[in-house]
Structure formats: structure tokens, C-alpha cells
Amino acid sequence: MRMILIACLLLTGCGGEKIDPAPQAGERHQLRIEWRVVDRPTLEQAYRDSGMVLLKRERAAGDPNPQRDRLHGFAGRLPDGSAVIYTLPPERLDDQATCTLGHEILHITHGDYHR
Questions:
Q1: Which pLDDT does position 4 carry in this prediction?
Q2: Is the peptide bond before 21 cis (omega within 30 degrees of 0)?
Q3: What pLDDT is stored for residue 56 in this prediction?
């Protein structure tokens, strides 16, 4: 089984799918996370280096490269067991990179909650 935390994201937005299992009031999580803010070529290479495959997807509005998956980030583990998150640079408080960071933290604490 692949590392559950290399559950990768092909995010299109910061909403929609329900988190299952969802965090509950009163939970506490001590996290040691390395966050790597990278450019798109580095993100895609790190994703491939983690054993994942970028799929060809339908082009997003305004995306000049129809061959590129809409990868915004992913989580994994470093050799020492600590978590690592890769994202593109955030520009605003609620942009895709910021949403991706929160999404990946949920993967670290709650595993693979996607359908």
C-alpha cells in the first residue's frame, strides 16, 4: 500500500467533498511538518519522484497547457517519518495554494478521506 499521506490532490477548488472522517471538536494533533513552497515544474517533478503519475486532464479555463494535470500540492513523508507538504506559492489568504495547504494538513491528520 502506498503511503497514505502521498494521497495527492488534483484540486479544482477549496470546497465540495465532505471530509470523512471529519475532525471533531476536542481533537488535538501535534504536527511536525516541513512545508516546501515550490514552482510548478518542481512540484510536478517532486510528485513524479514520489511515485505518482500526472494524468492528462481537461484544460482548466485559462490554462495554456492542456496536457498538464491541475496539481496544486501533495503531502508525503520524509525519511525520518515527519510530514512534508509541497504547494505552489500562496498569493492571497484564500487562494488555491492556501486552500491546498489546509487540505494537505487534513491528509496528515486524517489520512486519505477522498471518495
A1: 33
A2: yes
A3: 64
The pTM (predicted TM-score) of the whole model is: 0.72
User: What's the Cα-to-Cα distance from 51 to each of 17, 54, 108, rounded to whole Å?
Assistant: 25, 10, 18
Read off the pLDDT of residues 20-42 as tens digits, 9 standing for 90 and up. 788 899 999 888 899 999 999 99
3-state SS, the chain, equals CCCHHHCEECCCCCCCCCCCCCCCCCCCCCCCEEEEECCHHHHHHHHHHCCCCCCCCCCCCCCCCCCCCCCCEEEEECCCCCEEEEECCCCCCCCHHHHHHHHHHHHHHHCCCCC
58 confidence band (pLDDT: 50, 70, 90): low
Calpha distance 80→75 (Å, rounded): 15
What's the CA gap between 65 and 98, in Å, rounded? 23
Q: Which amino acid, residue 77? A: R
- Boundaries of every domain in the chain: 4-110
